[in-house]
Design goal:
single chain; four-stranded parallel beta sheet
């Protein structure tokens, strides 16, 4: 094999790609005649593939192809679908589509509550063998006793509760961060308290019940501190943030729907706190919250567009360019955040899947080249380094540039 091809050796050798796994692709890689880096396949525990129910936005097929293009070999789609996977028959509809169309490992969530309405628990016992964890992502569980019941049942079943944390009564119709940009441009703001107040409640419940608890897409400095303190107190809690919260903040906002996501881009101090959380281990992993919508749904500005952006095909190059090349974190740390830590926390096996990157490739992000149906990304036009040339899942090439 071309000696310019490097397999990243991690501190945890259990997640280092074996040379034997790469050997069948040696001729293909050697023909590249340029330095290449091989990483374990990335794992995203927070994606939206929209099927069943909303296939005009994305499908399991297009979503998993986008994942493969981004170097991901395992992904976990959220349950805000139609039907919601809150019973075994509903879950089977999704599993049938996954078996038919997925090109990477797709491990779905089941809903915490029936219809994600927060009124009664889903059929958690029947669903547990089929799901990676339980979540009502897209909505926060508003009732404290309902969340307590869910945590007790998840604990009994040996499953994790994965929470979208949002206090509805604090939203007040907001759609971007309640900060300087909203004030200057007459937009309705979402206060950070709507996120951290529910995290504060849930870590208390996790301590009470002993449930394994994971917080989705944290964006606020207070959230980082609450989770940091909970970990020090021995609570079984982890969290994720997303690339856009680490690389962008409200000073980057534009009057365009591709800048609208939930939670919103917050202040620079929040972004800095998230980076500090990455550095000290408070923030365990990076997930994309890949949330595609149809073009018309994202064409109505900040006020009128749907919440959500795509992220699978831009995550590694954006993070490598914005964090590693700027010496904020090391390359091995980034791979731990994208590939190792998610698998460890969610019990997702590493099976020698890998992706091959040309880290010297420089280009501008062009959404029209995406394999996802979604095109809305705040990284459009961003100059990045790092191009994925090959993704191998289960010994099969599932993406080739």
């Amino acid at each position: 094999m071309n000696e310019q091809i490097k397999i990243l050796k991690l501190n945890d050798p259990a997640f280092t790609v074996a040379k034997e796994a790469v050997a069948p692709f040696a001729d293909m890689l050697s023909s590249a005649k340029k330095p290449l880096d091989i990483f374990p396949g990335f794992c995203d525990v927070h994606v939206h593939f929209r099927e069943p129910g909303f296939s005009y936005k994305e499908t399991v097929k297009t979503g998993s192809l986008a994942a493969a293009a981004g170097g991901y070999t395992a992904v976990c789609p959220m349950p805000n679908l139609n039907p919601v996977p809150d019973t075994l028959p509903h879950m089977r509809e999704q599993l049938d589509i996954i078996r038919r169309d997925a090109c990477v490992r797709v491990l779905p969530y089941a809903a915490i509550t029936a219809g994600e309405k927060g009124e009664r628990l889903s059929d958690m016992e029947a669903l547990a063998p089929c799901c990676v964890a339980f979540s009502d992502d897209g909505r926060g569980v508003q009732d404290e006793d309902m969340m307590r019941q869910a945590m007790k049942e998840a604990k009994r079943l040996g499953k994790m509760i994965v929470a979208h944390c949002e206090v509805n009564e604090l939203l007040h119709g907001g759609y971007i961060h309640a900060g300087a940009y909203a004030a200057a441009h007459g937009h309705k703001g979402i206060v950070s308290e709507s996120e951290w107040r529910q995290i504060e409640r849930d870590v208390r419940l996790a301590a009470e019940t002993g449930c394994a608890y994971h917080v989705c897409h944290i964006s606020a400095k207070e959230s980082v501190q609450i989770i940091r303190e909970a970990k020090k107190a021995g609570v079984n809690v982890t969290c994720e943030t997303a690339p856009h919260y680490l690389l962008l903040d409200e000073t980057d906002l534009r009057e365009d729907g591709r800048w609208k996501m939930n939670p919103p881009l917050r202040a620079r101090a929040d972004r800095e706190a998230l980076i500090e959380g990455i550095l000290d281990g408070t923030v365990d992993m990076i997930a994309t919250d890949h949330a595609p919508h149809a073009a018309e749904e994202k064409s109505k500005g900040l006020a009128g567009s749907a919440f959500g952006i795509v992220g699978l095909e831009t995550a590694f190059p954006a993070l490598y360019t914005g964090l590693v090349k700027k010496n904020v974190i090391g390359l091995e740390k980034l791979i731990e955040l994208l590939a190792v830590n998610p698998r460890k926390r969610f019990g997702i096996p590493f099976e020698n899947d890998f992706c091959v990157w040309d880290l010297n490739a420089a280009y501008a992000v062009d959404p029209e080249t995406f394999l996802s149906k979604g095109r809305a990304t705040p990284f459009a036009g961003m100059r990045v380094n790092g191009k994925n040339l090959l993704t191998v899942c289960g010994g099969k090439a599932v993406y080739r540039a």
